[in-house]
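ARCHIVE ENTRY
Sequence with per-residue tokens
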Amino acid sequence: MRNHARVLLLIGSTLAVLCLLSGCATNSEPVVSPSEAVVLAGQTVQFRATSNGAPASGLTWMVNGTPGGSPTVGTISSTGLYTAPGTLPAQSVNVTVSHTVNVLVDEPSLPALVRFFNPSKFTPGTVTSTANPLVASYSLVLPEGATTEIQFGATTNYGLNTWTQSAPQNGGTVTVLVAGMRASTAYHMQAVVKLPTATQILDSDHTFTTGSLPAPAPNITIQQSSGATPAPGVEMLCLDLENGGSNLTGVVTDLSGNVIWYYDFGGVGLWPEPMKLLPNGHILMVVAPETAVSGAPPTGISTTNEIREIDLAGDIIYRITLNQLNSALASIGASFKASNFHHDVLKLPNGHYILLVNSQETFTNQPGLPSGTLVTGDELIDWDPQVGGPVWTWSSFDHLNVSRIPYGITSGSSDWTHSNALVYTPDDGNIILSMRNQNWIIKINYENGAGDGSILWRFGYQGDFSLPNGQAPIEWNYGQHYPTILSANSAGDFSMMFFNDGNSRLVNSSGTVCGSAGVVRCYTSVPVFEVNEYTKTAQVEMEDNLSPAYSLCCGDALVLSNGDFEYDVPYNISTPNVSYVQEVSQLQNPQLLWQMNINNQLAYRAFRVPSLYPGIQWTQAAITAAETAGRASK
């Protein structure tokens, strides 16, 4: 018998060597996935095995080396379904699999680790710093089906919370970026965990002290009417450096004007034109360089111009550079080359980006234009990140008459369209584009990438809509910014609001321009229009006439969660070097409730966002309570 065993061992060893030399597909080491899981008592995990990239069969599943496992370490079926024991072991266990074709040469797979989550003995989370000194990273290990949110504040009463994040499939590490904290302040934070069993548990309390700002904060003052309660949220500010001011150009403040988040652009003189909070919790922005009157960057200013999607820590999740864009445009034979990203960018529900860029063409024999005029127009690109390139393009030169120039051209370069805002209309899959220098808001046949780019309508003076007697032409849009759809529907018969700067507003049917002798001075307004696409009619439903305020550029307007209205007045000629954001009770007979003054800096856009987390609202009272005490030494 001993000799017989030696012979079998020798045969097995020889076969093993032959397999190593020639390769045995049937006996190649299987790979188990997932490689790691975290489970509660009684919870199951489906493991799978592959060999040479294909599903493997004829296997023996083991837990800690025991085929089929056991009641103490968990059982596993012949198909790889692992079930955790009712009483959890003190240590994690290994799941492996092996071929059963030839036991003499078989080796088990590399182990998959199963960790156990005991609600009464789980490992506390960890809190670490990030590249942004105002943002903490909070991580903890959770079982599948569990969720967590982080509550934080200057005391253990906390007061604010992040959004809820789910454990990964099969369980594992969950990381939540905690943002919304003031500089140089000690904070407490604690994870609130909800298990799939509906049990709620609390992590231990952690402390985190924020760092200092890298530059002086913007010069902000607040006015709030006695007894007024502003709408919930925080202010997201896109600040230009035109009037000097702080180098912190992309910031979020609480309603008292304290900076609670900022973005470091990594270059001097860069600013967000604009930035937007996305449903996935990231922030999307056009990174733009500060430009001089001539259009060239001042000395020492970065020339970076690109699209970035970042997380709250400032890590770049996705970016599109100008060189990358133009290389992709050339590869599809596009008729234009982009000279810059500007003013706005969209991210659609399908993950595509709609890019707004400039391009230039020279016209020599165009009626109304001096010969050799270099005209700057606007182009749209549907950029699919999956293919890394454009899948649809649109050019203003293909669809508009270049001789229509409301602001006029005398010589040199023409800023012909100067588009400044994009709106996606989900009801019909089209795009609305605000063209400041045409005094038009147009709707483009996009049809979710299948449209021919034709202009469906032009809203404004000499466009496709009519206004009731007495409203035209003075109520039309002039140099407008930031149209928004207020109604539940975005097509057909809907409500639209915008910030009507009022540049060169026509005050009568004779074409008299505001500010002319004997007529009304120019002014800015915030109107809400009822727009009927079927009848091509429109009328003003309500309006706040901001006169004597007259903002020469920029701005936005929106409806807040409590029904109040907010608008950014960035360039009022009556308040030089001061931009201000106002919250009013209504547009008809408005009552001023809250005002933010931004000194020595132009606020291109200012948005009230509910918080730094989609779906979460922070009230002014909650923010104030969360910021009480805890100020660290500077």
